[in-house]
Amino acid sequence: MASYKDKLKYITPPAIPKCIFCGAPPPLTGEHIFPRWSHQYLPTTTEKNYESLRGIRNPIDSKHYEIKKPGDIRHWKVQCVCSTTCNNGWMRREIEDSAKPHLIPLIKGEECRIFPAAQTRIAAWAVLKAMVAEWTIKGHATTNHMQRKYLMRHYIPPQKGWGVWIGHFVSDRSKTARYYPLWEAHPYLLMPDRLAARRPDKVATYFNSQSSTQVIGQLFIHVLRSPMPNLIPRWRFAPPDRGSLLRIWPQSQASVVWPPKSMSDMDAVYTSNAFMNFILGIQRRERETPTQA
Ligand SMILES: [Zn+2]
After folding, report:
1. Å from CA of 125 to ligand 1 middle
2. What's the domain of life for this entry (predicted)?
3. Which end of the chain has fewer CB atoms at under 10 Å, N or C?
């Protein structure tokens, strides 16, 4: 178990000296992970000192951390972007405003058809939020600067290393069930075998890959990114989610009917942890393999 001190050290915010997209100097403005227009679709908070429904766990060696910060997740903003060029420029115009009309029917669980162009607008929005949310905790920003530049210039996710899936999720909010967090992220370190072999300790000291999950209303969004070239294109979720998750990035040529088969709480927990558990399995096998002298 991680000690209290470990947890405090762990949630140190990073220093953000300039806009993470265009590099403009301060003052920087805050970007909402859950935009204002989406707040009406989030669960209402009535309790004082409400848990934010934000979970973060990652495999550093054998330690796992789970963070549940007090406060309303609606107010979660990351102060990391300039106002003119980014926050009130391309981010609003090309990403937020162009994705919002496609997101709302999915959030409300309305029957519709999602065409490839709309899938790309939704994926770009999800990737933007994932890139911003990384800057909440020191050491968790895993995205390469050139990939942020790509999104800024082309308004679509980077062509390599990113995968985005969506699902229809209505949480079972009974008192006995584990309440599913509205945001969950798992950063991790992936290395090619030849590099890993040079590290006798096999302990992650930094991260280069991440999974993150966001839930708004009935919409479940899962984003994976990794610099390992073949990993994301080959990644497949095991049943039961194979039938209920729709991959919207890399681009597909087909339109899809919404909603697909709904996900249960168990499906949501499985999906948000599947990639991390896969990585943990590899790391466990590496640790158990004796290092050759
Ligand atoms: Zn900027």
Report:
1. 16
2. Bacteria
3. C
